[in-house]
Amino acid sequence: VLYIFTNHVFLFLPGLVCCYSIISGPTNATVLAGSEARFNCTVSDGWVILIWLSNGNPVLSISSSQGPFETSGRFTSQNYTDSNGFTSELIIRNTQLSDSGKVECSVQQADTRFAFLSVQVNGSLAIKNNTLTVKENETIEIVCEALGWAPAPDIAWMTNDSFIDKSKYVTQYSQGSNGLHNALSILTLNLTDTEILTCLADIEALPNPQNATVTCIFVNSTL
């Protein structure tokens, strides 16, 4: 097996496998597009060449004698050695949707461990009006629009810090451009008091859901 990294050529002979192995491999990660993703791989003594692959393509190699050979500024590494062995930390900078997939740590064809990277996109979220006047016995529809997400976000509605029953709103999803997703959620209500309504959009990589609010001012028709 022949791997070429810029001006460095590494030839692996399957028969030349000794007593080294991967002690612990990378673990799955979910990150927002544009942020960093990090994966660790710890190998025992005796290794010579460690290869990192992204979706089957070698992106970084590390020689025990010469250190790392980088093929792209987005794929770099930090390395640590202790009593447990040698640890290579792959750092993927400015992650992109196309980085999603399998990330592999391979040691001279002797051992391979892999994990999966999920890169997600935090799109926009908006309710057209910031305030709305509502009359007594009036049925209102509030429209919340999420554009340019990956994956499609989970949509929920809240009022007075309580979730609104799902039967009160309908959410439609559509395919956007460049692998992104859109969502349109319509909330239908009859109000009896002034309320602040909040539309929430959530994906796994977000620490907190994105939100958009509208203040519905209730007007009693008898006044």
TrEMBL record:
Residues 1-19 form the signal peptide. Residues 14-122, 123-215 form the Ig-like domain. InterPro entries: BTN3A2-like_Ig-C (IPR053896), Ig-like_dom (IPR007110), Ig-like_dom_sf (IPR036179), Ig-like_fold (IPR013783), Ig_sub (IPR003599), Immunoglobulin_dom (IPR013151). It is found in: Membrane. Its main location: membrane. The keyword Signal applies. One of its GO terms (cellular component) is cell surface. GO terms for biological process: cell-cell adhesion. It comes from the Eukaryota. Keywords: Immunoglobulin domain, Membrane, Signal. This is IGSF5 protein. It comes from Thinocorus orbignyianus. The gene is Igsf5.
